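hiii so um. not sure if this is the right channel but i have a protein structure encoded as tokens and i wanna go backwards to a sequence. like what aa goes where. can anyone help
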């Protein structure tokens, strides 16, 4: 059970949500935070419950674009958050650009354009810090995932200014959708993938010099000895090329986590012919990888993300369904193999997809995802809410 939802208050800035909770408890429309706590002990208890349960809010209520998708989130120095996504008329339209917003104590800023390619759509931004503290924005531009080119830009002032855009050499993508793993020695292990005609494959791009040079490793695939299904239908109509998904096989968009030392795992989105989130393993810091195999978690050919908590558990965010992109769920595992689903972030009809999750310096989960392709939703899930410690 999600306590804020049980109180009927699930969006708005922190101050707005607290005020709404107080007024729902009987404080009246004139209630103000400074005077209300001492006078209303019942409301004070509600405040404690609301804070303990985290928060859910939209990054923006209005924006200069009709559709948005594929958000990324990063914690900035000092504890602020930044998120980015692509937005325009619709996915794949020529006016789609990369947009971003910063969250301070006052809430989320209005969307700001971060990157645009004249006459070409932008796709799948990824924000992360390299080991030297530089904030990077990687994204793609081009007509489709089969023909796009990767681009990037960096910021040395935590996203306030961005120097010129750099395009990556053909064949390199960088982090294709999920955040990369940045190891303690600064090595970047980035989940990448290639989408070709009716064939997809996961790759890893690895850098030991903060992204100046890359080594491409793969492909990482599910062997044909693993049984395939023959599903039809269920692909999102608004996604360019989705009708081909019924005839496509493979993995894309890996999320990489550290297990211990040089042991790594990647979890990948799979086509409906496979129907499960898949996992592959490395014992040498991402230099070599096993073949991938299905896990017990379903995957309706929709984006996922994973994060390893500082206490050793792994949290997965994904759509727990065989078709469609609802519900959107959180699951936790101690061994990376067996999972316990512990929260449904969304369960109503609609599309709730392409999530990104990090663990903040406060220990909590900070999550961003697509909400019906109309907005980006942010959720803070307290560490105390995650079972199985």
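sure thing!! here u go:
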């Amino acid at each position: 059970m999600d306590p804020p939802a049980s109180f009927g208050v699930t969006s708005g800035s922190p101050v707005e949500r607290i005020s709404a909770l107080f007024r729902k408890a009987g404080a009246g429309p004139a209630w103000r935070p400074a005077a209300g706590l001492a006078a209303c002990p019942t409301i004070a208890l509600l405040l404690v419950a609301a804070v303990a349960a985290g928060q859910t809010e939209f990054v923006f209520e209005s924006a200069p674009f009709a559709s948005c998708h594929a958000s990324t989130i990063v914690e900035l120095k000092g504890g602020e958050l930044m998120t980015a996504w692509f937005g325009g008329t619709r996915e794949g339209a020529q006016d789609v650009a990369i947009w971003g917003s910063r969250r301070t104590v006052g809430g989320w800023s209005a969307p700001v354009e971060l990157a645009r390619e004249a006459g070409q759509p932008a796709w799948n931004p990824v924000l992360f810090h390299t080991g030297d503290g530089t904030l990077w924005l990687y994204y793609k531009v081009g007509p489709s995932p089969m023909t796009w080119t990767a681009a990037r830009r960096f910021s040395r002032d935590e996203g306030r200014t961005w120097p010129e855009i750099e395009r990556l050499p053909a064949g390199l993508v960088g982090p294709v959708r999920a955040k990369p793993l940045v190891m303690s020695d600064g090595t970047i292990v980035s989940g990448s993938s290639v989408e070709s005609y009716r064939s997809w494959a996961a790759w890893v791009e690895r850098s030991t010099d903060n992204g100046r040079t890359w080594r491409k490793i793969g492909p990482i695939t599910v062997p044909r000895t693993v049984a395939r299904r023959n599903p039809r239908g269920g692909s999102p109509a608004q996604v360019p090329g989705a009708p081909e998904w019924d005839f496509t096989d493979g993995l894309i968009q890996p999320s990489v986590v550290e297990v211990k030392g040089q042991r790594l795992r990647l979890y990948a989105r799979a086509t409906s012919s496979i129907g499960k989130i898949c996992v592959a393993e490395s014992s040498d810091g991402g230099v070599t990888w096993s073949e991938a195999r299905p896990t017990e978690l379903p995957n309706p050919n929709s984006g996922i993300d994973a994060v390893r908590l500082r206490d050793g558990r792994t949290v997965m965010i994904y759509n727990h369904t065989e078709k469609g992109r609802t519900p959107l769920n959180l699951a936790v595992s101690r061994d990376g193999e067996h999972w316990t689903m512990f929260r449904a972030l969304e369960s109503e009809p609609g599309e709730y997809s392409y999530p990104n999750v990090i663990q903040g310096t406060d220990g909590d989960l900070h999550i961003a995802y697509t909400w019906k392709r109309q907005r980006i939703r942010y959720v803070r899930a307290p560490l105390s809410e995650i079972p199985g410690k």
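oh and Residues 1-14, 44-52 have pLDDT under 50 and may be disordered.
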